[in-house]
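Milestone M4 deliverable, item 7.
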Amino acid sequence: MSKVPFAGRLLAWHKQHGRRDLPWQKARNAYRVWISEIMLQQTQVTTVIPYFQRFIARFPDLASLADAPDDEVLHAWSGLGYYSRARNLHAAAKRVAEAGGRLPRTLDGWLSLPGVGRSTAGAILALAHGHRYPILDGNVRRVLCRYHGIEAWPGEPSTEKALWRLADAHTPASRVAEYTQAIMDLGATICRRHQPRCLDCPLTRGCRARADGSVHRIPARKPEKARPLRATRFLILRRRNRSVMLEKRPPAGVWGGLWSFPECTRQEEPASVCRERFGFKSMRIRYLPPRRHGFTHFELDIEPVLLDVEPDRLAGRRTLMDAGPVLWYKSASPARLGIAAPVKTLLDELN
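Output delivered:
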């Protein structure tokens, strides 16, 4: 199948209907495109826009991002989720800054940075520099699967390999930045997973899914696996001045590098943990309503326990210094920290 009709129709549609007011399209450069592409991984445009604007206001260039403390970067990312993206972004900025401060201009250069895969690297090079590289994000996968009648799950290795070949075949030799934006826009606004607007699509002619009535089942969903359920207790240690204790989580793992409440298992007695781990005695204990937080691979049942505390003189030499990085957080004068979403919700509820 010729790639010219596909790309040509897409470019003509985009000239009239494409999105041109997205914040990362203004003063477009590789840094802004990179930030937006990382934020847009597994996150919708409408959610990303305010985060991108705040992030760029705080870190307008690579040097400011590379020089920033970890907590400030995570604070700017708080609420956007998938925090490994922020950690990788920060690590990549530091690496580039140490190597001279110039962002890569090659595919291999981008792929050498943490958090950057083939599609993200291709999008940055195409949108920022007009280099001819195909992309294969979620929107593009859906467009190509429907147009070519591919019913398999796009993440299956052989299917993904076939989609990369098609993405490359359809990418034109010129106007690459426009084409890249056009196919992403088509997937986001017309060829949507739910309620696709086929009557407004410039690719209706030639679309196999449209021809055989299979649009709503293409592409196939990822085979579902039951997500295991885990449980934890949040210990909300609150002093008389209404400040509450937060501790910094390890850099890797769930909420890596973020500030959270101390945790214990449901088999442990909160007052004992409070005294033995932190050297405080609890004056009052209140069990707050439980809540569930969903992650990609599991569900977490959280039981928050509020403990009004004061120092326990009988705790001997046990001090907060033994507990790792901790701080007392006041909602009335919040520090600029990266805070896990359910923790932020609880802090707001306690305020």
